């Protein structure tokens, strides 16, 4: 695995104790996730905050940005498909599993550059479930979150979310990912140059507005979504969101503001909880080690000096 970074470093390096923010970009296929990452990369270059970019999609034909680390340099997606007789999704999952076995090298490359970085950005496979619900996706996410402040950016195709049913599906998926990872979370409504995300903000902040949108649908699905909207009320109350256009570049300053807020949340809530869990595991390990040693000493005391009969 090679580090392909060729971009110049910022003129002023951050403080030695400062760690870059890891932004995990996830989203449904067609949400504009990769284009969003391209625009974010260009925006950060303009601000002289050159990011470190990882591409974790082995099946993508081309990416519109220069990835510092690209899974395709290590794993041949088509070869995996042929060798293991897998379909497209199975080959992507297997490729990600194989790449995860070498993720310690990735961490090493990031660590070498971390003192001069503000952001590390990851582009994930378009088949969102492959990353969010797989063991390899969890390992990558947890490993990064254990070392760096990590933020999840859930990219949403705004024009395709104008239907109450599609909107609710996206919100339920976002909610499930949030509670699975427990990481700071940002809803990013993309393609606002086509459809403004005002309707989504209104539905999240005004329960009655969403009810009015549902009133035109009298099917069982409408009743189910009505119940779900009540359940998600608390989820909306503490949710960060923003609208961006990956085409025009509008909204990316607001997105970075949300990232800064999420970074503060990581240090205020996620990191202390992570440290507590690590301490508990270490304490449990020490207790088990002590108990094992006591049992060993007890066994040695019981058998000490005992005669061993010999067969004649």
From TrEMBL:
GO terms for cellular component: cytoplasm; nucleus. Gene3D superfamilies: P-loop containing nucleotide triphosphate hydrolases. SUPFAM superfamilies: P-loop containing nucleoside triphosphate hydrolases. Its EC number is 3.6.5.-. It is found in: Cytoplasm; Nucleus. Its main location: cytoplasm. The keyword Nucleotide-binding applies. Pfam families: ATP_bind_1. InterPro entries: Gpn, Gpn1/Npa3/XAB1, P-loop_NTPase. It is an enzyme of class 3 (hydrolase). Keywords: Cytoplasm, GTP-binding, Hydrolase, Nucleotide-binding, Phosphoprotein. The keyword Nucleotide-binding applies. GO terms for molecular function: GTP binding; GTPase activity. Belongs to the GPN-loop GTPase family. Binds to RNA polymerase II. Small GTPase required for proper nuclear import of RNA polymerase II (RNAPII). May act at an RNAP assembly step prior to nuclear import. This is GPN-loop GTPase. The gene is GPN1.
């Amino acid at each position: 695995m090679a580090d392909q970074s060729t971009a110049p470093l910022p003129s002023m390096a951050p403080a030695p104790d400062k760690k870059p923010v890891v932004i995990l970009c996830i989203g449904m296929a067609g949400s504009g996730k990769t284009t969003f990452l391209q625009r974010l990369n260009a925006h950060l270059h303009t601000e002289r905050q050159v990011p470190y970019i990882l591409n974790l999609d082995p099946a993508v034909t081309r990416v519109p940005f220069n990835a510092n680390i690209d899974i395709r340099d290590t794993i041949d997606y088509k070869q995996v498909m042929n060798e293991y007789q897998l379909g497209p999704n199975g080959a992507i999952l297997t490729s990600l599993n194989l790449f995860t076995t070498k993720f310690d090298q990735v961490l090493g490359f990031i660590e070498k550059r971390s003192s001069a970085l503000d952001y590390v950005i990851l582009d994930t496979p378009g088949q969102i479930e492959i990353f969010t619900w797989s063991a390899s996706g969890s390992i990558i996410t947890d490993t990064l979150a254990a070392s760096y402040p990590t933020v999840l950016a859930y990219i949403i195709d705004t024009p395709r979310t104008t239907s109450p049913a599609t909107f609710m599906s996206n919100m339920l998926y976002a909610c499930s990912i949030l509670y699975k990872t427990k990481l700071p979370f940002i809803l990013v409504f993309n393609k606002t140059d086509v459809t403004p995300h005002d309707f989504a903000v209104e539905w999240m902040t005004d329960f009655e507005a969403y009810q009015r949108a549902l009133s035109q649908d009298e099917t069982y699905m409408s009743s189910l979504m009505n119940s779900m909207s009540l359940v998600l009320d608390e989820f909306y109350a503490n949710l960060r969101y923003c609208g961006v256009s990956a085409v025009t570049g509008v909204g990316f300053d607001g997105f970075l503001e949300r990232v800064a807020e999420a970074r503060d949340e990581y240090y205020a809530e996620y990191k202390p909880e992570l440290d507590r869990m690590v301490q508990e595991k270490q304490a449990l390990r020490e207790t088990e080690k002590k108990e094992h040693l006591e049992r060993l000493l007890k066994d040695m005391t019981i058998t000490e000096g005992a005669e061993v009969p010999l067969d004649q």
